[in-house]
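ingest -> validate -> predict -> emit
validate: passed (alphabet ok, no gaps, 175 aa)
predict: started
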Amino acid sequence: MNSDRLQSLMDRAYKLGYEYEQTYMGCAQCVYAALQDALGLRNTETDAVFKSATALAGGTAIEGDAGCGAYSGGVMMMGTIVGRERENFADPDGVRYRTSEMARALHQRFIDTYGTVICHGIHRKIFGRPFYIVDPDERAKFDEAGAHTEKCPSVVGEAARWTVEILHESGCLPG
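emit:
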């Protein structure tokens, strides 16, 4: 893939992720949906994976103390494209290690940019404090601070962009 086409694909993934997070919220699903659409991978199988990401938003169950949903959504797409198949559970070829290598590359981009992959840690970086968004008052403060107008959409967009880049670098980008 030439560099202009790759850049266009990365930009499209970013734009879709950003827009989906602004519109629908749910960082893991928004990254995953952006990648489905940017990479032309929308089908029954990927829609089932999208559905499984529902509770991964906000650091899982919107508790904030687990991995960022945007990070999780990118890792889920890597697994969808490259992951170990159930029919090959024994994985004699070590597919799971290749997928983990790509996930570590995404992990490193999060560390380099946000210092963490944990939701509350990313909040500290981009908002200056974490929010416990299960609490309605905290959720209101989260929203007032730009959670779904710019802050989280930019994290989602970056995760989608980085995932495309890593898939390309790994020789696994579809199409």
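The chain has one domain: 3-169.
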